[in-house]
């Protein structure tokens, strides 16, 4: 037994060393930078903080039996998260570690989770290199494996979107499986890896599959005899189809959701979209975009030097030179030709310039390994020299780390200059050594230098870099704020008793942390019209955010908002303070000075209400006043409006509008300003963004926004719709709007309206004793309420989609979307039990495809075990014909045309910029 253990340990040792080195680099970085668990700092910023951690909280709840994998009750008035399962790699085996993490430490644990993935990357890459290049020197294999796990892509994006790292970690195994498929014809490993990849993350796996398609094309066309093409094409096609078939239980629901979501509405025909892609400049503008592009090559200077020398040294091997040229084109062209990059990203990307950048590092490392195996002999190196080298390298790394920690905040331009200078310097050094020493070059003599180069980038980029310019939403302690508020204020969990955060200090995904239903959401592909209707109701709109800011006391009552959590004080006319707590015990510059307060809403309506069935056919329009009044009339029977416009006198100067108006009765006043040229666009598309200040009776009105609860400049990215000015009772008020520039008045359209608070109170009292019993499970809702001859239609504040199976008193009925944010159901007189069960569209069909694929696969394996399956030649010829046509189409459309179009597109953009300057 002991002998077997020793043999196993001996076999595993070569694989463990790359992982150990990667782990050491990451741990040293975490320790020196004081990142959790070695300090109060964190690895996360951008999407890891605002999307990934909240969704991991949902995953944590699912693993502990407290949530449905496919559905989230808390965000967006009920949200389908089928797309998020795959887009955020929620079914990755790495996420099993989350089960062991305390829920309130999920955000902090991203550092450990990412470190584990990086260790696996180096081990997986070593496994590929060891299999494909067995004669490559062990130190070089180890170095290249570590370079993969610490490549520019990983250190750049790992801290801001760790779900992509799962695919990066598994990608070498996918390529190992592809190699096995092409060299032996055995498909099972490849099928499994394709299936696993698409189950984990459809987006990066689709990119990986394009790469597999292109690289296998290069291999088959340039390195295989023509008679073998049909066999390879068939094996590749059937293996890929089978792998994707096995993943359909995840893929089909993902695509069903995307097809009807706001994320899936690209707009325009595929031809017009394609023309837009190839019109892109050679590279994207912006220093951050440039930095991301250049960093994809960082740490690979030695590899590039080896490739360049190898191409020159072995130029007589024309066939292999053509292969290498093709691989370089596949890997590097997306960095420089924007049209190609856009097609890798399926048409668009936001924030992350090269989401497929790990393919660059992988390609170059494999090419470098090919030549390094031929170029480098196992030459001895004196131990004294090795020790000296290690000591010098360690000192250089520590000096750099100390310097980095001491330097002040700078910018990405300086960072780009620094890292490009390091890369170019090291590249020249390696190139000269390789050229001068030729066959006498000892690769072991530069390993410590390579280690220093890699460490420089890793230390700077693991955790929030000092040279990033952060927007408020990109970095912060929003998850901790929500956890602190949840614990300190003892906020009750509920899917149906909703909460609101008017000052947006908890970002958009706080409901997932609080386990409390809300309108806010930025984690999933919402229904295509949800955001638009929320805007119509008076809530703010930005990018793919669904926001709490805006709305009215009436809308909050309609959505059954019973509490508010806020840093700013809320108007006692609308809310009653329940609890508050003192300063946060968080060592962070972002920590608020006054803690959070929990309020109860003064005006409440039942979770579900009844109206006449004729209301379902009403034209509810897009005007918030009209929308409010139609719902109010339907609920109350009162034909007098709840919300009405206000008469006023106005004085106008160059930059100021002064209004005087008389409030009749007790009313809440709301202001709305729109840019007449950008009515439906985001705030940042308007000159009016943050260009106005509003005063009521000479008191400035707060306009809290994400990252600044004390902001007063209206409107902002995150607070750009209805602005609450206060409650007034039979009094005259003065409203003053000051603009930053006289020109802004020309495009500004101002409107006011008052909401009758007496009518609001009367409505709430009328429904006080209305029967509405609500219960829910992880993916279902049961509402019990009474109907009548005149009120025979139920309005339930849950976003309707085709995923809902609705029944009334046990009989399935057809529900309907009402005003975008409600589900409408026809009911009967007397008692009604309405049941809504969530069933993701495509899940059953996807599961059937998965099971059918699995069954076919098992049957084929059994048959093949007893009698080898011989595929008819004509089928293989059909396969190679289809494969060749697809390959030609992809190469022409994805590479050839964009490359040809890139130069004139670039010149055209330069001309446009010159014209703008002139």
UniProtKB/TrEMBL annotation:
UniProt protein name: YfhO family protein
Keywords carried by this UniProt record: Membrane, Transmembrane, Transmembrane helix
Membrane-spanning parts: 20-39, 81-100, 112-130, 136-157, 164-182, 188-221, 233-256, 294-311, 323-344, 356-373, 385-407, 413-431, 443-462, 846-866, 886-908
InterPro entries listed in its UniProt record: Uncharacterised_YfhO
Lineage, highest ranks first: Bacteria, Bacillati, Bacillota, Clostridia, Lachnospirales
Entry keyword Transmembrane: yes
């Amino acid at each position: 037994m002991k002998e077997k253990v020793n043999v196993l340990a001996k076999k595993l040792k070569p694989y463990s060393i790359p992982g150990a080195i990667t782990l050491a680099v990451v741990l040293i970085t975490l320790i020196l930078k004081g990142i959790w668990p070695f300090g109060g700092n964190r690895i996360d910023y951008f999407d890891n903080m605002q999307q990934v951690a909240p969704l991991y909280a949902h995953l944590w709840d699912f693993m502990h039996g407290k949530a449905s994998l496919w559905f989230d009750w808390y965000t967006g008035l009920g949200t389908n998260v089928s797309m998020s399962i795959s887009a955020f790699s929620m079914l990755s085996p790495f996420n099993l570690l989350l089960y062991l993490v305390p829920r309130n430490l999920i955000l902090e644990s991203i550092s450990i989770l990412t470190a584990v993935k990086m260790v696996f990357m180096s081990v997986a890459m070593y496994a590929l290199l060891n299999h494909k290049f067995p004669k490559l020197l062990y130190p070089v294999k180890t170095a290249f494996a570590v370079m993969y796990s610490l490549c520019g892509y990983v250190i750049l994006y790992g801290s801001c979107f760790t779900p992509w790292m799962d695919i990066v970690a598994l990608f070498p195994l996918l390529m190992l499986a592809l190699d096995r498929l092409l060299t032996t014809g055995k498909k099972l490993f490849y099928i499994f890896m394709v299936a696993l990849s698409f189950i984990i993350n459809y987006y990066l796996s689709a990119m990986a599959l394009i790469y597999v398609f292109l690289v296998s094309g290069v291999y088959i066309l340039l390195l295989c005899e023509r008679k073998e093409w049909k066999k390879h094409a068939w094996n590749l096609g059937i293996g890929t189809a089978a792998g994707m078939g096995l993943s359909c239980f995840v893929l089909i629901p993902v695509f069903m959701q995307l097809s009807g979501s706001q994320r899936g509405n690209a707009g325009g025909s595929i031809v017009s979209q394609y023309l837009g892609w190839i019109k892109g400049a050679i590279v994207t503008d912006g220093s951050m975009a440039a930095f991301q592009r250049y960093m994809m090559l960082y740490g690979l200077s030695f590899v590039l030097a080896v490739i360049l020398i190898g191409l020159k040294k072995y130029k007589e091997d024309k066939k292999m030179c053509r292969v290498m040229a093709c691989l370089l084109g596949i890997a590097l062209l997306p960095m420089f030709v924007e049209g190609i990059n856009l097609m890798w990203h399926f048409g668009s990307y936001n924030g992350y310039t090269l989401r497929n950048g790990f393919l660059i590092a992988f390609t170059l490392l494999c090419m470098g390994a090919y030549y390094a195996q031929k170029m480098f002999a196992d030459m001895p190196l004196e131990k004294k020299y090795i020790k000296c080298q290690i000591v010098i390298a360690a000192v250089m790394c520590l000096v750099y780390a100390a310097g980095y920690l001491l330097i002040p905040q700078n910018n990405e331009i300086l960072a780009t200059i620094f890292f490009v200078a390091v890369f170019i310097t090291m590249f020249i050094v390696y190139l000269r050594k390789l050229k001068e020493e030729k066959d006498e070059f000892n690769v072991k003599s530069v390993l410590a230098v390579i280690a220093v180069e890699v460490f420089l980038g890793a230390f700077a980029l693991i955790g929030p870099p000092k040279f990033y310019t952060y927007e408020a939403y990109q970095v912060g302690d929003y998850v901790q704020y929500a956890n602190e508020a949840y614990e300190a204020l003892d906020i009750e969990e509920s899917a149906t008793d909703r909460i609101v955060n008017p000052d947006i200090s908890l970002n958009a995904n706080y409901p997932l942390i609080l386990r409390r239903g809300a309108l806010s959401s930025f984690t999933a592909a919402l229904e295509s019209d949800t955001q638009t209707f929320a805007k119509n109701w008076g809530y703010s709109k930005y990018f793919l955010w669904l926001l709490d800011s805006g709305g009215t006391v009436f809308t909050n009552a309609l959505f059954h908002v019973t509490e508010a959590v806020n840093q700013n004080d809320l108007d006692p006319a609308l809310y009653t303070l329940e609890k508050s707590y003192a300063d946060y015990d968080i060592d962070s510059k972002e920590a608020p000075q006054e803690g959070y307060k929990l309020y109860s809403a003064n005006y409440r309506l039942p979770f579900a209400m009844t109206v006449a069935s004729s209301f379902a056919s009403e034209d509810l329009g897009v005007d918030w006043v009209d929308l409010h009044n139609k719902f109010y009339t339907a609920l109350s029977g009162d034909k007098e409006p709840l919300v009405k416009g206000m008469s006023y006198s106005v004085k106008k100067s160059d930059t100021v509008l002064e209004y005087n108006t008389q409030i009749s009765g007790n009313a809440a006043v709301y202001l709305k300003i729109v840019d007449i040229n950008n009515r439906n666009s985001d705030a940042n598309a308007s000159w009016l963004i943050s260009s106005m200040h509003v005063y009521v009776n000479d008191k400035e009105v707060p306009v809290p926004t994400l990252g600044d609860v004390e902001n007063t400049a209206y409107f902002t990215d995150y607070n750009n719709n209805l602005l609450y000015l206060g409650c007034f009772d039979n009094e005259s008020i003065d409203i003053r709007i000051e603009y930053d520039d006289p020109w802004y008045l020309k495009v500004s359209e101002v409107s006011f309206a008052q909401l009758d608070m007496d009518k609001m109170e009367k409505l709430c009292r009328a429904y006080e004793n209305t029967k509405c019993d609500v219960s829910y499970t992880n993916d279902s809702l049961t509402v019990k309420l009474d109907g009548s001859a005149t009120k025979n239609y139920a309005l339930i504040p849950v976003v309707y989609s085709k995923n809902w199976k609705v029944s009334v008193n046990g009989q399935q009925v057809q529900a309907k979307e009402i005003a975008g944010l409600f589900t409408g159901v026809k009911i009967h007189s007397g008692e009604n039990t309405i049941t809504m069960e969530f069933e993701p569209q495509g899940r059953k069909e996807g599961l059937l495809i998965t099971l059918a694929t699995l069954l076919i696969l098992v049957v084929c394996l059994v048959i093949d075990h007893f009698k080898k399956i011989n595929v008819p030649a004509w089928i293989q010829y059909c396969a190679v014909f289809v494969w060749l046509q697809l390959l030609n189409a992809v190469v022409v459309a994805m590479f050839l045309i964009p490359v040809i179009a890139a130069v004139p597109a670039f010149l055209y953009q330069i001309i446009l910029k010159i014209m703008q300057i002139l």
